[in-house]
Design a protein that fits this description.
The chain is of the alpha/beta class. It has a single domain, classed as Uracil-DNA Glycosylase, subunit E. The chain has seven helices and seven strands, in the order E-E-H-H-H-E-E-E-H-E-H-E-H-H. Helix 2 packs across helix 6. The longest helix is centred in the C-terminal third of the chain and has 15 residues. The chain is globular and about 40 Å long.
């Protein structure tokens, strides 16, 4: 498969009440197609957040944005551009990180969580030196992470709730 150099095609979600920042790595092909985060139907991100916050997550993009903002959650990705094959995190090369510090200047983020190892590694390598804020790695919600059940993911992801609930 050919590796293409791509730029992140859509903006972060956040506002003045966002206390928790969740970072993915780079949008999947499905997410790039729908122009929003976690667009692959088998990615468990939205189901996990629904379980963590104890409510149904809307299926439309505007509803999902409201859901995030109502719960004090900001959402973005660690990577602004990279070379990637399809949606494979393991194929990511030539990384340019997102300017996370700009978001941190605009929102009162208290904790940063990364969805999976690739996002966390990128954040710690490229962004932490600029922000001085360590991120916490959470298990990936990707369908490729079949080792964890939906319930196990929700239990581990529940750490996002204390900071988010303060919004």
């Amino acid at each position: 498969m050919q590796r293409d150099r791509l730029s992140h095609p859509f903006p972060p979600v956040y506002n003045e009440r966002s206390r928790v920042l969740i970072l993915g790595s780079f949008p999947s092909a499905a997410s790039r197609e729908v122009m929003f985060f976690y667009g692959h139907k088998r990615n468990r991100f939205w189901k996990v957040l629904g379980l963590v916050f104890g409510e149904e997550v809307p299926q439309d993009i505007e509803g999902r944005k409201r859901f995030l903002l109502d719960h004090g959650v900001a959402l973005w990705d660690s990577i602004a551009s990279c070379s990637i094959e399809g949606s494979s995190d393991s194929s990511i090369r030539d990384v340019t990180p997102n300017k996370i510090s700009e978001l941190l200047n605009e929102a009162p983020i208290e904790k940063i969580f990364c969805n999976g190892k690739t996002s966390h590694a990128c954040y710690e390598k490229y962004v932490y030196p600029e922000t001085g804020i360590h991120a916490f790695a959470l298990p990936s919600t990707s369908p490729a992470n079949a080792a964890k059940s939906l319930e196990q993911l929700a239990a581990e992801w529940s750490v996002i709730r204390p900071g988010a609930d303060q919004a």
